[in-house]
Structures are given as structure tokens and as C-alpha cells.
Amino acid sequence: MRWWLIATVAMLGGCMPSGTSTEDPGRQEAAWRWDLPSYFPTPRVPADNPMSEEKFQLGRALFYDPRLSGNGQQSCASCHHQDKAFTDGLSTSAGSTGELTHRNAQALANSAWHPTYTWANPALVTLEQQMAVPLFGTDPIEMGVNDSNRDIVLNRLRSDSKYPQQFAKAFPDDVNPMHFGNVIKAIASFQRGLISADSKYDRYLQRRASLSETETRGMNLFFGEKAECFHCHGSFNFNDQIVHAASRDLEIAFHNTGLYNIDGKGGFPFPNRGLFELTGLATDMGKFRAPTLRNVAVTGPYMHDGSMQTLEEVLDFYATGGRVIAEGPYAGDGRYNPNKSDLIVRIQLSEQDKQDLIAFLKILTDENLLTNPRFSNPHQP
After folding, report:
1. CA angle at residue 119 from 117 to 125, to 5 degrees?
2. Which end of the chain has fewer CB atoms surrounding its CB within 10 Å, N or C?
3. 325 DSSP β-pair partners
């Protein structure tokens, strides 16, 4: 089933600029400064969409603007709340038509370093490509922009006295800058600038904070062979898919964690079957991207379908080596899923171990990200 690949190409084709651009990447990039800790590499930025403050601020305005949807009431921020690290606290989210998304809304911070986007689509390799999915996608419908209303949506933006000037400043060499190609570039730039690097753990690494005994024990468990969390969450961004400006060879990992086994043969519930939805390969059933654990304490519910409500539940699941569902349509023993990753095995964790791990996970919360006015809704008084 390769409809995602076809749909992505088609949607991006409909977003190409309507004006001629002679934009000089070096000129705009010079106006942008990455403020990163020493252990954060510089992100990779597409040559045709260099960062600039003007573009970031335009993207911020568009990200929070409900007029950028078919019904004029749904914004990107409807499913990505700043106080929840740009998730929404729901298992799945309602789009502009009321239809629910298939999967849990992912956190957006530090997405500049993702080599792939969404839960399980290796074809989406830039934020620009990803943005076209919620904007124009039809399965499910999220923002609800389509051929019948795209001019209406753009005219809403053109009628705002601020947007024409903002677009002109963000894309100074584009003859006609107010088009969906630039809408996507601006929002991608805002998302690329959502940096989370000021948690207590970051301050500890920079010798600006100290950890408690339970936090230290949790850190040692996390990065040790007993709990083995670091195998999939050991990077500076606490995941295992990373790309940056100096990247050469990439290993793109997706994992089956034994969350389901509904038929005793490794089955996952439709339409959430991971890479299998794209490749049709039985061995790809249930394989998803490991999400970042930064800010994980405020991004529940968890897993690709939001089927786990608490961190305690997640730890119990991993300690068991898979999920056992005793009854109902999803009944099955995920511990014996034939496609389960070899990294997912039973782990002997005491209750104290679990408390220590959760204490460590909580110090990955970046309060600055959750409250910084720079990332907030500019349309509010």
C-alpha cells in the first residue's frame, strides 16, 4: 500500500510557488542564529528554505491562525499546545471536519533533527513535506484545505492587513509571495526553530544544576544495561533517528515493541500497522519511530495510538517485554509477537527502580519551552 508516497508527491506538487523566486539562501541564513548547547549539532536546513527571523515569525502567526483551514476554525495549534510540549493531551485528535486522526499527535520541539516525520513514514524526510500532510491530507482530514477552498483560505489571509507585509519581508525576492508553497515554508521554519534544550537534565550537563539521589539512580538505570532505555532513546534528543548539518550516513530505525498481537501472528489493528501500511511487508507490521522523550512527562497519553495513559503504565509494559490484552477486539499477547524487536525483553525492575526512572524522565521537561512567549500565540492580546 503506497498511497502515502503518491499522495505526498501530489500534494507538494500543488503547493509550488506561483511567483518567481531569486531568494539568496546566504543572505537570509545570516540573519538567523542557532542558540544551542555544545552537545547539540547544528540542524540541517533545506537550501531552498533558509532560516530567518521574519520567516520564523510569519510561520508562528500561521501556526496559530485558524483561518488556515477549510472551516476557518482549525489551526496547527489546535492539536499542538505549547503547555503540553506541542502535543494535545488526547489519544487521537479531531480534525476540521470532526474526523479523528489515526494516531497520537507528536511533540514538535527539536523536530529540526528528525530525518523522517510522523510515526511511520520514511518517505517524509523534511518538515516542508510533513506540513503538506495535515494541511491537504484526506485520510484523515485535519486542516481540510482542498482544491475547492484553497483560494478562499488564501483570501482570508490576504484580507488581514498584517500578512501581506509579513510575507513580503519573509520572502523578499518572491514576486507573489502569498501562496501555499510559502505558507508551508514559513510554518516549517517556525517548527524548525522550536528548540527544547533547557531542562533540568540539560542544566545538570552544563553544571548549572544538581540531581537528587532518585534522579541520579534513574539516570544510571536509563543509560545502563539493566533498563536499556538508551538503546532507542540515547541521543541528545532522546530518540534514535537523528540528522544534522554534518550528517553523512543515516540509519533510520523503526521498532515493533510488542504493543499488539491481535491474531497471534503479529497483527496490529488497522489502520495503525506501522511501516506495513506503506511497504506491505509482514516483517514491517507494527514498526514505528521511537519518539523523543524530551518533555515526556507532559506529552501523554503515550504510544502511536495514545493507548497508554501514564508513564507508570509505559514502564510496566516495557518491563514485561510486551503488552498482554486479555479480552476484546485487540486481545493478544504482544510478548510473543513474532516481529517484536530483539531489544524488547523482560526487564527486572523493582518498584523503586520504576520510581527512579520516572523521576529522571520528569527532569527532561523544559519549562522554558512550555512558557516562552517566543513560541506562543501572537494573535492573543
Report:
1. 20
2. C
3. 332
**Burial category of 132 from C-beta neighbours within 10 Å (exposed 0-12, middle 13-18, buried 19 and up):** buried
HSE-up of residue 300 (Cα within 13 Å, Cβ side): 13
Residue with cell 538508551: 230
Instruction: Tell me the β-bridge partners of 141.
Output: 138
Nearest-angstrom CA–CA distance, 366 and 377: 18
pTM of the model: 0.91
The pLDDT tens digits of the residues spanning 334-380 come to 999 999 999 999 999 999 999 999 999 999 999 999 999 999 999 98
Q: Where are the alpha helices (DSSP H) in the chain?
A: 3-13, 25-29, 53-63, 127-136, 150-158, 163-170, 180-192, 200-205, 213-222, 230-233, 276-279, 311-320, 351-362, 367-371
pLDDT tens-digit readout, 67-87: 999 999 999 999 999 999 999
Buried b (16+ CB within 10 A) or exposed e, 29-55: eeebeeeeeeebbebbbbeebbbbebb
Q: Partners of 255 in the beta sheet?
A: 288
Distance CA(275)–CA(278), nearest Å, equals: 5
pLDDT digits (tens, 9 = 90+) for 231-288: 999 999 999 999 999 999 888 999 999 999 999 999 999 999 999 999 999 999 999 9
